Protein 1
Amino acid sequence: MYFKSDPTPKNTEESVVLNVPLGVITHVEKIGRSRQKGDNVIYGLDVHCKDMRTLRFAFAHNQESHGRRGMYDRLQIVAFPCSYGKNVYAFHFRGDYPDDGWEVYDPEAELKRMGVGNDGVPWRICHLNKNYELCDTYTSTFSVPLNCSDEMVQGVAQFRSKGRIPVIQF
């Protein structure tokens, strides 16, 4: 939401600019209501944001102009598109990519490229975390010192916070 005030002749200061990403808006509410015809009440909107800001917009009310209603309806639609059945670009963009993104990275090939597991390098590739049961925050394939057996790796993981053992992972 981008708002820029117009400087008035009474107020010679620069205009006020508000720039609020739509994803920061948590809710919008209407404020002000007159009980009797002719009451001089300011109508407006409060825009509440996730970053603790509350923006208040005031509108002069008359029978011909319903500026608050139009702004309220538009803000509801653009700030909460899924609630109104609108398409969100991020969810509907379908680019054509030559490679399957899930198959681009091969951790075993990457470790071998770095020399891990080759002759003379004191590390080996370990597949103990294939189902993410050893350590759910590590990759499925990582490298451990060459002289560590799988049993030793599992034993060490039991005594480390969340099973996080010293490894080479990429």
Note: The first helix runs from residue 67 to 79.
Protein 2
Amino acid sequence: MLDFFEMKGVPFTREISSKHLYASACQKEAAARLEYAVKNRQFCLLTGEAGMGKSTAIRTLVHQLDPIHFHYLYICDSSLTPKLFYREVLQNFGIQPAFRSTDVKRQYQSLLLDIYENEKKMLVIIIDEAHHFSDSMLQELRFILNFKEDSMSPLSLIVVGQPSLRNLLKVKQLEAIDQRIQMRYQMSGLTEEETHAYIRHQLKMVETPHEIFSEEAIQAIYNFSQGIPRKINTLCSQSLLDAFIQGNKIVGESHIHRVINEL
């Protein structure tokens, strides 16, 4: 199929390198907010529907972190518990977690203070899938951030999840957590104009020498996907395959509708 469309690689894939990602207005703002939160050791909440580009925003952030000044740890576990969280952090730095939970928390605090005060580095902890967390895990965020009687923070904590997470944090028993959030951002889909630009950008990255998607096809993609990048990728990939099977060099509206019917 690549030879058929004269492509030098596979477009519309998650494997695209960070430096070649398409920067929409939403992605640019997410990147700016995340960078600010990290530099100022803040607690940041990043939310968005599935496929909206939260992982892309995190990839962009991690790519920018200078290892001389930062350590980062990414945890993605929908069933994360406080015990598993502390174990993950400690083991990541080669520390055997203690048996008692109070000792484990003491180990965690000592580790982060050592990294910050002695190594002169900052730890960036990114916790994904947080909309699935239990109340006990959400409550624990308060203690994860608590250093020196809450007078300082040696880390930046970024919590990522779907929009339902924002509502979860509004309940009375989690009000203290919600009040601690210093930066929050809700991601949105691409605009119609950005959807056009995104598709052309993806094709440019694989050095396609000519247009492949008709204007009508791109319009149909936007109408169905509503600018959600993951849906755009799926539609484009499947319609390319459909056009290839039929021997068509141009992906037209009919190819898009066939794929939509299959989906």
Note: The radius of gyration is 22 Å.
Protein 3
Amino acid sequence: MEVKLKELLAISGYSGLFRFISQGRQGVIVESLTDGKRTLIPASARVSAIADIAVFTQTEEIPLKDVLKKIEVLENGGPAINNKSADKEIRSYFEKVLPEFDRDRVYTSDIKKIIGWYNLLQSKGLLEVLNQTDEEVKPEGEK
């Protein structure tokens, strides 16, 4: 399965990541990376492309793609800490990944999602999507 970064979606209220399949009249059709099931997500749902998500640091926002790459480097392409670990362990781990993250604006729940997404991509052999260039990430027709 060829997956592009611009097709990967996070959907508020749903766990895991999804691949964009098609636009429907009632919303978007997505496929879960976890179990491969296709679902119609209503147009009212908050859907975010992974390529558009960033993490707050003390000075700027870092694209999620770059944070996931930092985890990949730290783990040598292997799995990260379990995202269900104790909150203190999770935050300590993330400090190794991104020491400059903004501790006031990046919540433990955000870190757990990021680690969970990394582990999902890693387990599915999809970490190579993190190496796509910005041209490959932009939606068609956008410059």
Note: The mean pLDDT is 91.
Protein 4
Amino acid sequence: MKAHHTFRSIEREKLEIIASLLQQAGYRITRITPRQGELTFKATRDGVHSGEDEQARVGQLVEHFNIESWSVTFT
């Protein structure tokens, strides 16, 4: 299974930190871009075995850095 995460925030520094941490963990990261008054980037990871575990792992980062918007889909 593949996980596709989308992160949105008005604070570039938070997104840069999360993107760096996820990249070190093996996620593919898109460039941080402005969209509708916010900044956004996407992170993708192949080989996800459990959607719940994936959401819990990334959700901890989102909560810690107080990210305004985060969504995840699985394919």
Note: The chain has one domain: 3-74.
